[in-house]
């Protein structure tokens, strides 16, 4: 087995998933192409040495359909010999893309790949593909699959996590992000051009957010609960009296437009191009946990 390394990692700014968002006017392929060229420029990479690009993308629909990993390579004007693979494992799609790239290097199948992900939610909204497990609640319930907001509320209920605790974590997170942005710590962000004005900063950090404003925000997933997810969860966990809908737009992940890319390769590849490894990929693991909790797999993976 050959050790696999990450030699560089970049991303676009994360902009609001709306028509007024900074990246909305770009297609996913256009955004990815800028990252590919930036990664090549930063590392002096000759793309002819790449075997493949692996991308995570959840909503593979419309502009993100038809294997966007491959079509974005062609859009970038890179060699047609570079293969492309697009994978979907929901929120961990891009992490799995990196893990898969590392495994290909470790197995000796590839000397160098780009891995990453893209989601342009202002152009391809959440659930745009109308997957049956989410569009048909009865069908989803029969397979114990619910939306992640319902799962997050169930986790909070089962573990006694309060609305105030969720809001406090969200407020602290925004304050940390503001501090990091002010101190210029987001050095992996690549300014994106081809717009009315270049976009170089995250838009989803909220400097004006206050604990008071967070406390005023209504629950985001109570209607989902009333539509049937609460009943499904309570039937599965009869010790619970009710589901606490503690998550709001303020303490949940922001909908955004963004993409990211990392250069993965062997030590021999890095030495050939004079690149210093930033990370050695030691191991990765995939675990599934309680399906109705939706987002609990990270705990199982950490324990494993």
Main attributes of the structure:
single chain; 304 residues; alpha/beta; Peroxisomal Thiolase, Chain A, domain 1; seven-stranded mixed sheet
List the helices and strands and how they pair.
Layout: E1 4-11, E2 15-16, H1 28-43, E3 52-56, H2 68-75, E4 83-87, H3 93-106, E5 112-120, H4 132-135, H5 137-142, H6 148-158, H7 163-182, H8 211-216, H9 222-236, E6 256-266, H10 267-273, E7 279-281, H11 297-303
Parallel strand pairs: 3-4, 3-5
Antiparallel strand pairs: 1-6, 1-7, 2-6, 5-6
Helix pairs in contact: 1-2
- What's the architecture of one domain in CATH terms? 3-Layer(aba) Sandwich
The CATH class of one domain is Alpha Beta
Give the % helix. Answer: 25-40%
Number of helices: 11
At the third CATH level, what is the topology name of one domain? Peroxisomal Thiolase, Chain A, domain 1
Structural class: alpha/beta
Summarize the structure.
The chain has 304 residues and is an alpha/beta fold.
């Amino acid at each position: 087995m050959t050790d696999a390394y990450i030699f560089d990692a970049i991303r676009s700014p994360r902009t609001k998933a709306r028509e007024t968002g900074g990246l909305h006017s770009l297609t996913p392929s256009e955004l990815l192409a800028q990252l590919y060229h930036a990664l090549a420029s930063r590392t002096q990479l000759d793309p002819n040495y790449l075997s493949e690009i692996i991308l995570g993308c959840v909503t593979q629909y419309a502009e993100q359909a038809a294997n966007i990993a491959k079509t974005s390579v062609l859009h970038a004007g890179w060699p047609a010999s570079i293969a492309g693979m697009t994978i979907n494992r929901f929120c961990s799609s891009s992490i799995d893309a990196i893990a898969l790239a590392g495994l290909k290097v470790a197995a000796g199948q590839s000397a160098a790949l780009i891995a990453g992900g893209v989601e342009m939610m202002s152009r391809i909204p959440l659930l745009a593909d109308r997957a049956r497990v989410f569009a048909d609640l009865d069908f989803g319930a029969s397979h114990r699959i619910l939306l992640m907001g319902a799962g997050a509320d169930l986790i909070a209920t089962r573990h006694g996590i309060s609305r105030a605790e969720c809001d406090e974590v969200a407020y602290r997170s925004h304050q940390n992000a503001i501090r990091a942005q002010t101190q210029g710590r987001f050095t992996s962000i690549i300014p994106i051009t081809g717009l009315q004005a270049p976009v170089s900063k995250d838009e989803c950090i909220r400097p004006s957010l206050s604990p008071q404003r967070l406390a005023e925000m209504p629950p985001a997933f109570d209607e989902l609960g009333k539509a049937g997810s609460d009943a499904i969860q309570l039937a599965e966990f009869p010790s619970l009296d009710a589901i606490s809908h503690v998550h709001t737009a303020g303490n949940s992940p922001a909908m955004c437009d963004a993409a990211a890319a990392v250069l993965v390769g062997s030590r021999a590849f890095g030495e050939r191009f004079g690149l210093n490894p930033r990370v050695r990929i030691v191991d990765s693991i995939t675990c599934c946990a309680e399906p109705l909790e939706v987002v609990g797999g990270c705990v199982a993976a950490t324990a494993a």
